[in-house]
């Protein structure tokens, strides 16, 4: 029998408890992201693959980054200013913490930049900032860069995932960060089973207060694009990046799938080895530009999901309108005439290296093969598997090749390393002193009006010298569940705005 | 004692009972009393296989006059049309007629299959016969090499060979030919081993026949039966190998259509335009079925234990 006293206690409790604020934890949210490629490692200063950049973006931050309008915005650096064209000072955010709880300071930034600049590191980001002569850290939250030459694309270079700021202590402890993640990013690495999945958990100390909104991100590797779409459709994936035209078309027909698209920065090109006859002759290379119907390639190989482009990605403000680019209206008679003038009235035979992957563009190769046939050029396809394709690219072992190059919002970063005679990825073995000079002038001019005239001239010069035929810029495409809200797609394909996204199931 | 009498006696006692004597005269096979042709027609599956194969060969030979559309010219405006109207099997992503490409594709698929199996038969049977007949170090070396080749999964080995040689139809024939050589070597060696110790071979030797003539007159007729069965089965595997290599992009190169590369390209549009993959897939299925039915039927006919 309950005594009277106890009875009172129960009554009071019954009245009071429902009125207390209930701290029921909101259900943890998990977003599952489908990707088509596994990453080799996660050290942001060392990785080379685009697939790695996308993951590194969740785990690390740069000094600056691009927003969805492709303008530079602050990341770890709160502000910056040029003292003179060869000196720039960055002011860092205060209180930014690495995943291990230590504070990010100018010492870590100095260490990272010097690590990237050290040739022994073999960082792909080195060429983006190799004008940096000296990195100074005058106080805990200030970093000053002294440059050998002014570099207009410096901020663009610093926004690369390869320039993500790493923890000095962590690098000294682990050697490299391929398997160990100590970043400042919105997510922390919790679990990784290579070729299967990676689990990232929310960084509670992230410097953008209130972000990220989603607690856990699970990244699943599914190599087949149609399976990625099937995953989003069935609900086993919340989001996936796709690029095959047929899959995009199928996604757009699906009622329960949201398709986000934006003009990208990658550039599809048809490359020549300019040391192999007949491509040693610029007239031959340029003649073929007239033989190519770019819209037909976009329509068949990309299902229309691409924008015709010159050497500067059409999605950036630096690109000349197509009407000002020579040879962009296909004209078979003109192509034949130019070929005859160059000494090939009956055409010639050549080979096109291609691969069945999206990047290897085998459908593009087939359309080009057919279009070249109309001007008497017999092209044989060398369809090789992806590893062989890369090896032949590195060894410059090709007559012509279908490529997908990673572009950039700043014209210097893509064009200089691609077409300068000393460029790191000039695998056309292209040498043209006039173009070299334009490239050099374009990068040291910080004044954007003067830069514009230089790049306008350069675009026309590149099309006529034709180290490659510039074709189009494919669209960036994300497919997502309607429950994913607040994600912004960026032309560079980066997923860092996932930190602002939420799930509303 | 004549050769033929001995050979008949020998073969009757052994498993092989293929119907030509050593002297080359047609010989009735023991049991049943029906002719070889009669039993072939009476077999339930073999004639179906033969009809399928004959029809496929006929189509392949006449393909250039049968195709309704040019197989190379692209019509972007006609891309991915469903079957019907002027395009019985629909069109592909480039607006080319799928029916025309399936018809022309049969030429590459079948030509590669026949030529590669011919290569395997010639090389494999020669190696196997001589290995079995001479024995000793030659047998040891040849068959160990064959074992090594045999140890690799067929398609993996073919991929490796294609990667080394580069992609061309000739290399495709060579790669598939190499992969299926050990099977013929083993079949031929087994038959040679069985026959070489028999009395009629000793008799032939006693009569002064050289090794070459003994192999030609006594061994080859005895390996023909198992090799014939193996040929039919290998042809179906060769069609599949050609398709697989082309599917992987290592075989027949565009714009030349082969069923494998059509299937590979069509796979990307399986949802939007299934006809791109379905028709070449059906063609592969039909021909492989034909060779298998024929092979099974022949085995039933030629193997006395199954009769």
From TrEMBL, chain A:
PROSITE patterns on file: SBP_BACTERIAL_5
Solute-binding protein family domain boundaries: 71-424
Signal peptide: 1-24
UniProt protein name: ABC transporter substrate-binding protein
Membrane topology: Lipid-anchor
A GO MF term: peptide transmembrane transporter activity
Pfam families: SBP_bac_5
Record's subcellular location: Cell membrane
Segments traversing the membrane: none
Gene Ontology biological process terms, A to Z: peptide transport
Similarity comment text for this entry: Belongs to the bacterial solute-binding protein 5 family.
GO CC term, one of those recorded: periplasmic space
Keywords for this protein: Signal
TrEMBL record, chain B:
Transmembrane annotation, as ranges: 45-67, 110-134, 154-180, 272-295
Membrane topology, record value: Multi-pass membrane protein
Cellular localization per UniProt: Cell membrane
Gene Ontology biological-process annotations: transmembrane transport
Pfam families from the UniProt entry: BPD_transp_1, OppC_N
Family, as annotated: Belongs to the binding-protein-dependent transport system permease family.
Stated name of the protein: ABC transporter permease
């Amino acid at each position: 029998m309950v005594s009277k006293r106890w009875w009172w206690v129960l009554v009071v409790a019954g009245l009071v408890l429902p009125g207390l604020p209930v701290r029921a934890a909101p259900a943890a949210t998990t977003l599952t992201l489908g990707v088509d490629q596994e990453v080799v490692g996660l050290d942001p200063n060392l990785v080379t693959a685009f697939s790695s950049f996308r993951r590194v973006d969740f785990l690390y931050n740069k000094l600056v980054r691009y927003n969805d309008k492709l303008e530079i915005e602050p990341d770890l650096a709160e502000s910056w200013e040029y003292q003179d064209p060869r000196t720039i000072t960055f002011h860092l955010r205060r209180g930014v913490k690495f995943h291990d709880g230590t504070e990010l300071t100018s010492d870590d930034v100095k260490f990272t930049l010097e690590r990237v600049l050290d040739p022994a590191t073999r960082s792909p980001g080195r060429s983006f900032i190799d004008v940096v002569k000296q990195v100074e850290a005058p106080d805990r939250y200030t970093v000053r860069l002294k440059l050998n030459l002014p570099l207009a694309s410096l901020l663009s270079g610093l926004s690369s995932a390869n320039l993500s700021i790493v923890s000095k202590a962590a690098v000294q402890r682990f050697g490299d960060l391929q398997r160990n993640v100590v970043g400042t990013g919105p997510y922390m690495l919790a679990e990784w089973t290579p070729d299967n999945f990676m689990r990232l958990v929310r960084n509670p100390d992230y410097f953008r207060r209130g972000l990220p909104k989603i607690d856990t991100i699970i990244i699943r590797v599914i190599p087949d694009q149609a399976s990625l779409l099937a995953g989003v459709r069935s609900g086993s994936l919340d989001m996936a990046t796709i690029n095959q035209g047929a899959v995009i078309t199928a996604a757009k027909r699906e009622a329960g799938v949201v398709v986000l698209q934006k003009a990208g920065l990658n550039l599809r090109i048809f490359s020549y080895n300019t040391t192999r006859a007949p491509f040693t002759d610029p007239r031959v290379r340029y003649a073929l530009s007239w033989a190519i119907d770019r819209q037909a390639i976009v329509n068949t190989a990309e299902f229309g999901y691409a924008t015709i482009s010159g050497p500067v990605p059409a999605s950036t403000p630096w690109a000349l309108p197509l009407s000002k680019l020579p040879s962009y209206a296909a004209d078979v008679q003109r192509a034949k005439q130019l070929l005859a003038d160059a000494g090939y009235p009956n055409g010639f035979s050549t080979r096109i290296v291609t691969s069945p992957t999206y990047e290897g563009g085998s459908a593009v190769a087939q359309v080009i093969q057919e279009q070249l046939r109309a001007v008497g050029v017999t092209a044989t396809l060398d369809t090789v598997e992806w590893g062989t394709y890369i090896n032949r690219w590195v060894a410059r072992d090709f007559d012509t090749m279908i490529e997908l190059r990673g572009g950039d919002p700043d014209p210097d970063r893509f064009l200089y390393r691609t077409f300068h005679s000393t460029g790191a990825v000039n695998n056309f073995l292209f040498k043209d002193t006039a173009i070299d000079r334009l490239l050099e002038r374009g990068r040291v001019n910080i004044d954007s009006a003067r830069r514009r005239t230089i790049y306008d001239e350069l675009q026309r010069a590149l099309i006529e010298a034709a180290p490659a035929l510039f074709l189009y810029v494919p669209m960036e495409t994300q497919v997502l569940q309607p429950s994913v809200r607040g994600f912004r797609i960026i032309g560079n394909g980066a997923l860092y705005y996932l930190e602002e996204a939420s799930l509303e199931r | 004692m004549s050769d033929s009498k001995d050979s008949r006696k020998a073969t009757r006692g052994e498993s092989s009972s293929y119907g030509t004597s050593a002297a080359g005269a047609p010989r009735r096979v023991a049991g049943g009393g029906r002719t070889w042709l009669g039993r072939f027609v009476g077999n339930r599956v073999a004639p179906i296989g033969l009809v399928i194969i004959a029809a496929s060969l006929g189509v392949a030979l006449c393909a250039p006059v049968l195709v309704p559309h040019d197989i190379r010219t692209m019509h972007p405006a006609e891309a991915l049309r469903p079957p019907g109207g002027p395009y019985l099997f629909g069109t592909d992503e480039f607006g080319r007629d799928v029916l025309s490409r399936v018809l022309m594709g049969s030429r590459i698929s079948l030509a590669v299959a026949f030529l590669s199996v011919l290569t395997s038969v010639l090389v494999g049977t020669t190696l196997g016969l001589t290995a079995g007949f001479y024995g000793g170090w030659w047998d040891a070396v040849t068959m160990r090499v064959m074992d090594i080749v045999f140890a690799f999964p067929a398609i993996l080995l073919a991929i490796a060979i294609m990667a080394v040689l580069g992609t061309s139809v000739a290399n495709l024939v060579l790669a598939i030919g190499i992969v299926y050589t050990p099977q013929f070597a083993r079949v031929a060696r087994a038959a040679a081993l069985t026959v070489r110790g028999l009395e009629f071979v000793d008799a032939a030797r006693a009569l002064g026949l050289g090794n070459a003539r003994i192999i030609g007159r006594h061994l080859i007729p005895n390996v023909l039966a198992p090799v014939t069965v193996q040929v039919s089965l290998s042809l179906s595997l060769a069609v599949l190998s050609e398709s697989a290599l082309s599917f992987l992009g290592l075989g027949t190169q565009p714009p030349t259509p082969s069923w494998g590369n059509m299937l590979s390209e069509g796979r990307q549009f399986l949802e939007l335009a299934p006809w791109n993959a379905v028709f070449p897939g059906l063609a592969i299925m039909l021909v492989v079925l034909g060779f298998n039915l024929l092979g099974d039927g022949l085995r039933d006919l030629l193997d006395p234990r199954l009769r």
